Amino acid sequence: MCRTPVIRLIALCVCAAGAAAMLVWGVETTTAIWLVKHCGYWLMLGTFVGLVASLVVCFKESKACDVSSLVRRLCVPGLFIVVASLILISMQPREYKIVMDEPVLAATSLQMHHHNQVLTVSKAYEINGIFDLLGGYVDKRPYFYPFLVSLLHDIVGYDSMNGVLLNGLLVPVFFILLYALGAMVWPKWGGYFSCLLFLTVPLLAMVVASGGFDFLNLVMLVATVLAALVYSRAPSFARMNLLILLAVLLAQTRYESSLYVCAVALVFVASWIRSRGVFLSRLSIVAPLLMLPVALLRETFHEGLWQLNAETGEDPFALSFFGDNLGHAWRFFFSMNDTIPGSMIVSVCFVGSVALLLCYSCVRPAAVRRQFDWLLSSHLGYFILIAVVNFLLLMCYYWGQLDDIVASRIALPYVFFQIVLTVVAARLIVAESRGGAYLLLLPACLFVSYTWPLCARSNFLKHATPQGAAWLREKVRSSASENPLFVTSSHLIPIAEQVSGTIPKFVLAHPDRIELHDRLRTFSDIYFVYTNVETLGEDEVLLEPLLNDRFELEVIDSESLVDGVEIRMARLLEVRLEDIPRISLDVDDDEAQGLNQAFTVYAKALP
Description:
The structure is a single chain. This protein is an alpha/beta fold. Helices cover 59% and strands 9% of the residues. A hairpin with a 2-residue loop joins strand 1 (120-127) and strand 2.
């Protein structure tokens, strides 16, 4: 690498200033929504293609061309990774886990697959055998995950569960990256130790078998940390480009992951200080502009998307949440029951590792100093620092209760860094002995005796808000060939299955519209799917408003979710309009204008 000309440094400053101005002052919400919707897919595609190209260049640069020696060296680790991957994939049922997130991501990938637009489909109907996507909204969720799912749709064909398939395909990638990172921290045994420790975390098995973006976020975080360690050992422009693109895509995987871009920036600054010169690749100059999709998505994040309730007030972040959330975090990290997928094993190992490092710093300061010098020179400490900042922010968030199954998945990055520090301490313990193989027995035995049986008997959703997502999806798929319309608050589930769906609010507000389409037989059947509470006590809340008397329904199926709560599927028999006039489509067939007007009325009346 050679020192960067001043003109490159000036160009970087200009791009950074432009990106900062966009972040601070932003653009109008309507403009931001238009840009995300129409340009987001293509920006993501360009970034992803750049990442693949950078990986190829880095592989060639690493001179890992002796395939035979590489296969011999990686034979045992490869077999270990295959076995670990198969075990992890089989530990939990593959289904929607977090119903408020995963159907949204599936609906977004559907739009990206059909129209290359970043849009969550919320209105779609099958008319005359053609399923049309008729509208939606730009969602708050980062869209790298639905982008990858849409690519999978393009390759293997559309399926609503391709998100779960993507997570399964990422499992061996995750173990390869984790093994490589662990081997860098603790040669010979660190790769095995880190993988076995992570296998003891039930939360990992849960998110792998889901259709959410949390596992991809973990994979991208491990890849970014590993790329930073590789770059710190031997800086080059190719490795710089790879690290930049990984950081950019990580920032577009989960909301809080954008902060890790700061750690990557610190890695570059530290390497410049160490080499006494500023080195910039061409890509690094425009890197701040690659973060503009994050800023644009933030502009679309209106108040309603925070999902605040009346008790929390208007501010989602407040110091008043800190103490309570810290108690919930303690319960998550140190609990052993079948409703919390945390790993007390990893948490205890982490606390013991921190205590060990502190003790060793007094007894054997030279050995500990070498370990901390390695952490600083590899820049791993910057990522740990950002993880701590993220954790503190989460503790100030109104929905930061980690023992809530909806929020538990956010803890995966913290578990990852706990494992990294545990591996550092393990290396210190057996640095001069042959006890590494014996140390591996601890997580292996704990996995077989505790984690595996726990995952076999629980899906950790026992006390989650009853949604009946799996039941509803099964009913939708079984009736998909009949062209039905599903009226349900979880309308994205039928839409993701490419079946007509809408929400009860629209139907209740315009009964004349649903009466028109029932009369015209636009749909083979109209099904209302709703939850019913049999007995309402003082502390119980009705999950959905009762349907009004205008709709005569016939209950055809039901399923008990929890005690006193069941999900029902009812067929619409009749709509009683009473004082509301019927919508008429009577026109003269010879008049083209009348036909157009009738078609317009028909289309606008779709519920």
